[in-house]
Amino acid sequence: MHDADWMGVNMSTVGLITEYNPFHNGHLYHLEASKKITGADTVICVMSGSFVQRGEPAVIDKYTRTAMALANGMNLLVELPVFYSCSSAEYFSYGAIMTLEALGVDSICFGSECGDIDILSYIADLLINEPAQLSELIKAKLSSGQSYPKARNESLCQYIRANDCIYDTSIIEEVLKSPNNILGIEYIKIIKKYNLSIKPYTIKRVGSDYNDTEIMTALPSASAIRNVFLDLEVIESNHALKNAVPENVYSSLLSCVGKSFPICIDDFSVMLNAKLKYLIYMDYTQLTKYLDVNIDFANRILNVFTGFELFTELIEKLKNKQLTYTRVSRSLMHILLEITDECVIKYTQSGTIPYIRLLGFDKLGQTYLNKVKKECEVPIITKTADYKGLLNEDIFATDIYNMAVFHKYGTKLASEYKQAPVRNQ
């Protein structure tokens, strides 16, 4: 169902994989550049919901972020289920790409630090068809105590150095240092592995570095923007913030500040402490049923946990050479959100995705949606109550998020059963 001719009008589509945490000028540039490079007239977005890939809550709720995206040119947004959105790059990519495939998009366009689709595809091919020599290198480095990302990256460079490859090792090393390059490689891996018809494109990231913590340009990182939110009193007077986001986004942030925004990971500290205390009290080995929590990690929790840590303090206590800050954060979030090893079967072992959850659309997005619903083999959910059995993890995650908003600001966000998709007509 690609490049479909509907009612005599050819609609070409590009898919974007996003978090919009929050939407800023860099995202607007990405949206417009993606349409230009692919020639698409319809933009379909898969967006993380209440929790994001770093193992943290979104700074503002998903429906407000949906409205921001629609107001700035997005046509259709669907939610990346929390199992994918709060998981490793591999699962995150699988869920996002398979969702876009089910929706029949022609292409995807993602930002990367290198901006070179050929080199990203080359690395993806190596990892899909992993040579025995590369596998042995990775295994040896894991045995020495390295984390998997570091072991894989170093092994790739070592393998390329030892073999007559088309790219210089220094180029590969530089590519593997950057998170958006790595995520792009994972997108391409999924497309290649499942022989999908989606065509991948990439654009070079512009503006600030991914990890910059200060707003230095009109195209800052989302991290730099979120850093401003640490001090509520300066948000309204921060001119750099005003220049870093579209005007309608800035107005939306101001209308929500101190009411439902900002939300940070430490707002979930009491809930996490209570959950861990209960599990340890009953039988700490129950921790191993959660995704990314093995018995060694469970023992680390048992040894350092007192029940009086902020979420971020506990992460710092638990991280080590093998366990990165983000890996620990995601693992703890899996415990809090009841994301277990059993979820892997539901979400990854069918070669597709279990459902597509609609977040919002404009007129063009509605036209696309009306057609795709007739042909899509995956259920497209617009009414939560009709599919609540499928949506257990997502409903629970949003309930947990809304509880944090209520306890911080006294604001009651609409439940998943009462919140309709956002319309921008």
CATH class category name of the largest domain: Alpha Beta
Distance between the termini: 26 Å
Number of domains: 3
Count of strand segments: 12
For the largest beta-sheet, the strand count, sense and barrel status come to:
8 strands, mixed
Task: Give your account of this protein's structure.
The protein is α/β, with parallel strands linked by helices and 425 residues long. It has helices at residues 25-38, 62-71, 82-85, 89-102, 117-128, 132-143, 148-162, 169-175, 179-193, 222-228, 232-235, 239-244, 247-256, 269-283, 295-304, 311-318, 325-337, 342-348, 363-375, 392-409; strands spanning 5-6, 9-10, 13-18, 42-48, 51-52, 56-57, 76-80, 107-112, 199-204, 356-362, 380-381, 422-424. β3 (13-18), α1 and β4 (42-48) form a beta-alpha-beta unit. The longest helix has 18 residues, at 392-409. Mean pLDDT is 91; it is low at 3-9.
Compact summary:
This protein has 425 residues and is α/β, with parallel strands linked by helices. Helix content is 50%, strand content 12%.
Notable features of this structure?
Rossmann fold, 425 residues, alpha/beta, 3 domains, globular, eight-stranded mixed sheet, 20 helices
